[in-house]
Amino acid sequence: WDRLRCAVCRRQRAECDELDAELIRCKEALNHSREKVCEHHSAEISALSQSHTQLQDTLTAATQEVTSLRQRVEEVTSERERLQEQLSTQNSVIAEQTDTLQKLRSYIGTHCGDEEQQQQQQHTLIQKLQKENEALCVSVELLKVRVQAASDILALQERELRDECDPLQKDGAAGRLLSLWREKVFILLVQLQSRDLQLHTEKSQLHDTVCDLQLDVQKLQSQLSVVQHNLRDRTAQLELQNLHTQELQEQLSCAVEENTKLKEQKENRERSFSAITDTAHRVSESVGQCAGQMDAAQCRMDSLAQRLSFATKRLDTVHGLLLRREALRKAHQASRPPDPAASDSRIERLQSEVALLSSERDALTQELKRTPQLIQNALSDLQQQLEKEVGLLTQALSRSRAELDECELRRLEAQRQCEEREETIAELRTEAHRAEQHCEELEGTITELRTEPHRIQQHWQSLMQEKVSEMERVCDKQLREMETLLNTARREHTKAGAGPAAWSDE
Question: What is the 3-state secondary structure (H, E, C) of 310-328?
Fold first, then answer.
């Protein structure tokens, strides 16, 4: 019986040792798996946190870039509006100044050095013509005096002839001569008077012609001044157009630079967007891996819980067997006669051993009962923590996706603004091309206006030369006619003087 009891005790101790060893192995395996899971999850959480911080930094940088681009676009738009307003105000001021110049041109004309020189030449030419006219007038007056003297001489000669003529011979040769002489003189006087009237009319015509020429000269001067003012106006317009073209070219270069910058920023944002998308995919994959690992850990914990429940049931079975053996032992002791003191001491020792084994068994039972609860609590805490972290990561991922969507919208907005800027650049290029064409047209008009004064001056000079030559021809013709008349009068006077003398001699 003692051997049996010792064998049972050894067997119970061996089973307890096995259970302790198995429990220790389970604890070590559970702690090791828990440490691995915690390390893996902490590493994944740190990686996710780093990726989340990187995403936040990238999104912050992209947001700052988008805000800076918006500010730059707003500044460029405000600058363009300001330049357009300045251009419109300058155009209105130029239009007002052009209207004022057009109004002033009809009343006042400023003369430059060439105009003064041309006016001086015209004035000297007019003075020359006036001097020639005065000389012609003096010559006409002298001719009048000479004709008057000739008429006086003829009157004296007629008086002498009338005094010397015999009244009885009135119808003779002297009377006929006198009548013929009177007729000739009358004809000469009529011719002289008609020539005088003709000279007076021609003089008035010459005076009118000179006045007309002066008016033409004044008109040509006014036209020349208007043409010069138009030339200056067109030159000023050309300069303004050149300045406007330079401003447009500068704006075009600035717009091209901004367009290149916007394209570079667009490419950078696309690269950052692709990097953010890749990071989001990696985060989602890591979250999926974490979920798979959590499921595997949960399955392993379920298997460990099953093993613990099996060990608990086995301990309960062993405890029942021990209780049965103890009851059998007590019944056997009760049926046996009392032993001596050695048996009592041995019984006490066995009882103490049984009590120790029972206490160890109870401690192991409590430990085994408490271990699944602790494992379950730890698993629930770990699961809650992981669920919380997964929720945070999911929220961060959703925020990142929302921010990515917002960045995409901003990228599309920036792309649209870039397209608008490209359209504006194309419009500015077409406007610059039109301005260049307008400048070329203005240059052609300026060259025409520059050649027009020379052409007008040449036409005016040719006209003046024609008028002067015509006046010279008329004056020469009149002088020749007057000289012929004077010579005729002299011959007649000579004949008239010689006729009465011969008649008186006879």
Answer: HHHHHHHHHHHHHHHHHHH
Contacts (Cβ under 8 Å, ≥6 apart) of 224: 115, 118, 453, 456, 457
Quick one: which of 292, 341, 317 has its CA closest to 41? 292
Q: Which of 284, 302, 297, 276 is nearest to 390 (CA)?
A: 284
Place of tokens 């053996």: 325
Dihedral of CA 87/93/96/98: which sign?
A: negative
Are 375 and 234 spatial neighbours (Cβ–Cβ below 8 Å)? no
Residue 256: CB atoms within 10 A of its CB come to 15
DSSP per-residue codes, 278-341 = HHHHHHHHHHHHHHHHHHHHHHHHHHHHHHHHHHHHHHHHHHHHHHHHHHHHHHHHHHSPPP-H
Q: Residues 6 or more apart from 72 whose CB is under 8 A from it?
A: 258
Residue 91 has pLDDT above 70, yes or no: no
pLDDT tens per residue across span 296-324: 766 766 676 676 667 667 767 766 777 77
Q: Poorest-confidence range of 109-123, 210-224, 399-413, 475-489? A: 109-123
Summarize the confidence of residues 456-464 as an average pLDDT.
67
- 104-150 residue pLDDT tens: 555 454 444 455 566 677 677 777 777 777 767 767 766 776 667 66
* pLDDT over 50 at 227, yes or no: yes
Query: Cα dihedral sign for 210, 215, 216, 221?
Result: positive
pTM: 0.36
Residues 151-184 as b/e (b if ≥16 CB within 10 A, e otherwise) read beebeebbeebeeebeeeeeeeebeebbeebeeb
Q: Is residue 414 within 8 Å of 265, Cβ to Cβ?
A: yes
CA count, 13 A, side-chain hemisphere, 37: 23
Q: To which residue do tokens 């392993």 refer?
A: 300
Q: Residue 500 has what pLDDT?
A: 44
